[in-house]
Write a structure and sequence with these properties.
Number of domains: 1
Order of helices and strands: EHEHEHEHEHHEHEHEHHHH
Distance between the termini: 34 Å
Number of helices: 12
Number of strands: 8
CATH topology: TIM Barrel
C-alpha cells in the first residue's frame, strides 16, 4: 500500500527542451533523502503532454533504475486514447513500476459510460496496480463518484487521485469506494485541501508543493495519517502560501522556476509552456524565501 506524500515530479530540461538525466537523478536522491514516500514520474507536472512515447518510457525507466526499490515509483500513463494508455501502462509495468496513474481522457470529453469502459479496458489489459486521476479543471472531464464506485470493484484499480479540491466530493468518493473495497485508496491531488482530506480518510497526497518542500509535506501527511490534526495543520501552515503561488501560472511553469531558483534544476521547459513571466516571479520568490527554501 502506497501512502503519504507522493511527489508529482518535474522533468528537468535544458534550454532546448532536452531531458537532463543527471539532474533527474539528483532530484530522485533529494526526495529519498527528504522522506518523500513515492515518486510519480511523467504526470502532468512531468510534462507528459509533450514527451514523446519513447522519452516517456525512458524517464520512467530512469526513475525506476535510480530509485532501486528505495522509494515507490508510480508512472503517469493516462491518455485520451484508450489504446495509447494501454501501451504506456504495459510499457511501465515491464519497466518495473509499483503502480500507474491514469488521468481521465482530456479534450474528447467522454460520457460517464465511456470513462467506465476506458478504465475497465486498461485494467483488464494490463495486470498492474492502477490509480485513477480526476482533475476536471485541467481535462474538461469530470468522473463522477458513482463512476469511480463502479470502477472500484475492478481488482487492480486500487485508488484514485481526486484533484477537484472539493472536500465533500472527496469524502463521498471515500465512502462509496471503501464500501465496495475497504482497501481502495483515495489520494488528494490538491495541495491546499490535502491535509484536510487525509484527516477525513484519504491515504496521502500526490503533490506539486512536495517538489520544493518535500520534508515538510512528508511530515504533514504522516501526522494527518496518524490522526494528529494539530501537528498536521501546523506543518501545512508553514508551506500553505506555496500551494497557491505554485499555481500562479499553469503547472509546471511556477514549480520549475522555483526549483531553478533553489539550484535544483536548469531553467528548461517545453513549448507551448514558457518560463514564468516576470510579474509572477517576485510573489513566488517571496513565499519561497519565507518558507526557508532560498
Amino acid at each position: 500500500m502506497i501512502t503519504g506524500s507522493m511527489v508529482a515530479l518535474v522533468t528537468p530540461m535544458d534550454s532546448t527542451g532536452d531531458v537532463l538525466w543527471d539532474e533527474l537523478d539528483q532530484l530522485i536522491e533529494f526526495h529519498i533523502a527528504q522522506g518523500t514516500d513515492a515518486i510519480v514520474a511523467v504526470g502532468t507536472t512531468g510534462e507528459s503532454a509533450t514527451l514523446e512515447f519513447d522519452e516517456h518510457c525512458e524517464v520512467v525507466q530512469r526513475v525506476v533504475t535510480v530509485a532501486a526499490g528505495r522509494i515507490s515509483v508510480i508512472a503517469g500513463t493516462g491518455a485520451n486514447s484508450t489504446k495509447e494508455a494501454i501501451d504506456l501502462t504495459s510499457a511501465s509495468k515491464y519497466l518495473g513500476v509499483d503502480a500507474c496513474l491514469l488521468v481521465t481522457p482530456y479534450y474528447n470529453k467522454p460520457t460517464q459510460e465511456g470513462l467506465y469502459l476506458h478504465f475497465k479496458q486498461i485494467a483488464e489489459a494490463v495486470d498492474v496496480p492502477q490509480i485513477l486521476y480526476n482533475v476536471p479543471g485541467r481535462t474538461a472531464c469530470d468522473m463522477l463518484p458513482e463512476t469511480v464506485e463502479r470502477l472500484a470493484a475492478i481488482k487492480n484499480i486500487i485508488g484514485i487521485k481526486e484533484a477537484t479540491g472539493d472536500l465533500d466530493r472527496g469524502l463521498e468518493v471515500i465512502k462509496r469506494c471503501t464500501a465496495v473495497d475497504p482497501e481502495f485508496m483515495v489520494y488528494s491531488g490538491d495541495d491546499p485541501t490535502a491535509i484536510e482530506l487525509i484527516l477525513l480518510g484519504a491515504k496521502g497526497n500526490i503533490s506539486v508543493t512536495a517538489n520544493v518542500a518535500p520534508a515538510t509535506m512528508s511530515q504533514a501527511c504522516a501526522a494527518a495519517l496518524a490522526g494528529d490534526a494539530d501537528k498536521a495543520r501546523q506543518l501545512d501552515s508553514q508551506i500553505r502560501p506555496l500551494h497557491s503561488e505554485l499555481f500562479i501560472e499553469s503547472n509546471p511553469i511556477p514549480v520549475k522556476w522555483a526549483l531553478h531558483q533553489m539550484g535544483k534544476i536548469s531553467a528548461g521547459i517545453r513549448l507551448p509552456l514558457t518560463p514564468l513571466s516576470k510579474p509572477c516571479r517576485e510573489p513566488l520568490k517571496k513565499v519561497l524565501s519565507e518558507a526557508g527554501l532560498l
